[in-house]
Write a structure and sequence with these properties.
Radius of gyration: 34 Å
Order of helices and strands: HEEEEEEEEEEEEEH
Number of helices: 2
Oligomer: single chain
Strand content: 35-45%
Distance between the termini: 115 Å
Largest sheet: 13 strands, parallel
């Protein structure tokens, strides 16, 4: 086991001990075998999911990058290019501007999503919603206006009428105004 050395020179035991070998991790193998592309730089860490539990209360501006699950209380503003999930215990009084929002709890404020808003059966939303798509499960409560989809492209401005078009318009008969009347057996 252990060798007890008393009064001997330790330099010999230090010389015989070899340095620790260098540990190398194998390079990831590209799925395209034989491709001449250089190795891709190291991928950034996997998307993180942040969680605010039921005992967390925030007043102010909340900004995040990837995913946020809120089960606590937030009052103020929430902005992100990521995804927001509002848990069943969450109580949010905020303007929300994110990529997607999935709501299980209560939200009082306007929601603007670049992509999708989902209201689950336990959701209660009081405020306006703007999103590309909106899904509302049976049982969800939604009081407000919704604007869904992307606006159609603007109509091209009208071209100025040519002389030939204005002559044709003058020659066309004008439609008569609709006549009003009453149905037999009815009175005004």
């Amino acid at each position: 086991m252990f060798k007890k050395v008393i009064g001997q020179d330790n330099s010999e035991s230090q010389r015989s001990a070899s340095p620790l070998p260098e540990i190398r991790h194998p390079e990831p193998v590209s799925p395209a075998y034989g491709s001449q592309q250089p190795a891709a730089p190291a991928a950034r860490p996997a998307a993180t999911r942040n969680f605010l539990s039921t005992d967390v209360e925030i007043k102010g501006i909340v900004k995040f990058t990837n995913d946020l699950v809120v089960d606590g209380k937030i009052e103020g503003e929430i902005t992100s290019d990521g995804n927001l999930t509002v848990g069943e215990n969450a109580r949010i009084k905020a303007e929300i501007k994110t990529a997607t929002v999935v709501i299980y709890g209560k939200v009082h404020g306007n929601i603007t999503a670049a992509d999708r808003v989902e209201l689950k059966a336990s959701a209660e939303v009081i405020g306006d919603i703007k999103a590309k798509s909106l899904a509302i499960e049976a049982g969800a409560i939604f009081v407000g206006k919704s604007t869904v989809g992307t606006p159609a492209q603007a109509v091209a401005p009208a071209q100025p009428a040519t002389a030939l078009q204005s002559i044709a318009n003058k020659a066309a008969p004008t439609p008569e105004a609709p006549k009003q009347g009453t149905l037999a057996g009815t009175s005004i």
